[in-house]
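Exercise 7. Predict the joint structure of the components listed below.
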Amino acid sequence: MNFWIIQGLNGLAFGSLLFILASGFSLIFGLMRIVNLSHGAYFMLGAYVGLSAIEAGANFWVAILLGGAAICILGTLIERFILRRLNGQPLAQVLVTLGIAFIIADACVWIWTGDPRRVPMPSELTGAFRVAHLAFPIYRLFVIGVAFALAAALWFLLERSRLGAMIRAGVDDLTMARAMGIRTSLLFSVVFCLGSALAGAGGVLAGPILSVYPGLDTDMLPLALVVVILGGVGSLLGAFVGSLIIGFIYSYGQALFPDLAYVILFLPMVLVLTLRPTGLFGRQAI
Amino acid sequence: MMRSSVLVSGAMAALLVSASLAEAADNGPLKVGFLTVRSGALAAGGRQMEEGLKLCIDEHHGEMAGRKIEVITADTAGQPAVTKTKAQELVERDGAQVLIGPLAAFEALAIDEYIRQTKTPIISPSAAAEDLTQRKLNPWFVRAVGTSAQPYHPFGEYAAKELHYKKIAIIADDFAFGHEIAAGFQRTFEQNGGKVVQKLWSPLNTAEYGTYITQIDPSVDAVFAAFAGGNGIKFLSEYKNYGMQKPVLGSMTTVDEGILKRMGDEALGVISAGWYSAATDTPTNKKFVAAMRKAYGADPGYYSVGAYMACQFLNNALEQVKGDTSNKEAFMKALRNVNITDSPYGPVKIDKYGQPVLDITIRKVEKKDGRLQNVVLKTYPAVSQFWTYGAEEFLKSPVYSRDWKPAK
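Solution:
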């Protein structure tokens, strides 16, 4: 029984991290049809920015904001000056984002020396929460809370706000949205900023658990892809459910079938792609 | 006809010239090809290797046994295919006469065949894979570090006899390095009455260790954690956050000085074994550590001391042949005959398989002089890669692997 509870919590915590990572990826893909392969690099760069902020004396919460803000600015610039020039050439866009990912990765080695680093967690969240003889890190409970709050906020933004209505209109039919007078160019910038900021802030938030090291980007990007493919591209609900499913498969799977640890996350993806290519909550084939 | 014979004689002349140039080069600078990693996930280790090598070359003022040393550096990016290309470039284009490198065992394996073909002497500053100096011996290969399991034969005995642990759980990186460390430890720990009751293999790129930490059998006396790269940082801090109380034993790389400087209190008290500790209290090591700290502001660890010693091996071999490397076989013989009485490792000599016999220290992480250090608890002098088993008996059994012996 303890096993199921504790691994369930582990899965929930890891799924929460994945949701924070994948929501931005999904948001960008849903509206702009850009497979942003820099997303993992944004996540890593955000963590490094946050780390430097903390080392310069900022507290953890400020570091999260700075990490998000820095990556929002970077993402917006890349979208405005590079990706937009390649409008309508999805293959070129994918390749450019991959190239940018490599550049960011090597710049990080250059600036932050490549030593693996741990982002210190706020002291009020260290240690374990104990019930009976179960112990679980307080910080992970906090991450779970953040992910659910973020999911609710994003749902509200997309489903209940004017901006959300415009984004949804753009996702459904970009040409028509433009014809209706929605400034899609500005919309693109806003969404790219938001998606990038989620990656950057998520990197800082994940820092105390994952630490930050060269290669964090390429470790995380496939996970974002798996979540989004499983959940259905461009669907917030899909990203949420997909993240939690992957989180549970990760924790129960690695514990119950240790020999499959390397592939276990990719099996459901293959299954879903075979049986339901649009993902669990995807609406249309691309 | 005329034309072609002109061509032929021209080519002959060119050959003669280049041959005489090659001969002349033997009194000129010795070209050392250095395979390191400057980009990608292993870049931190590569930088530390460069620092160690540079310090050694500087100590010798760029000259060994009367010959200038010219180091040509190549970045392998930690990728076996690139390593092979770079090794070829160094040997064939740049004329490297001896190689130092590469960083990772899978890189060393990628150029193994090439080294044999071209008969290029190579000194490994880091790659620990057992069979390179055991069952798949390469006559041109000599190692300046321990094998994966070399420190853990004494460590297993220490854990059973001196720490009096009876039951241990092992968690290790799921690749050859981790498998070999775990098996070496288990072998002597169980021979001395201990029991490994659980073995957890986590993928090298495990995102987070919560799933594994919560599986650890609560009845064990201690956890032996063998990690490479930055995984030790992740594991130890999460171990603490999960409220785990059981003592942690580590591999040399779990709490290597290269990452120890990035750790916090969670590393305190971790006992590990290795062929080097920056805290070893000998005049030679103190001098080495002071020089490294002065130049690079940090204690030397696995990679920096490995490259430093590879360079000292080169110096020792060059002195034996009086700087004359024209006879490759003789030079290689000298490399395999390295005998250094005093070094940061302590005394070092090489067995006939090309593997150093080393002092192994048992260390404990403590805070000293305001920083975390691997304070030495005990030294096992002159430990062979075969421990006390003898080469023949050792080599008859299969190489240490994931399935070497299951936990009970």
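Discussion. The CA atoms of residues 14 and 278 of chain B lie 52 Å apart.
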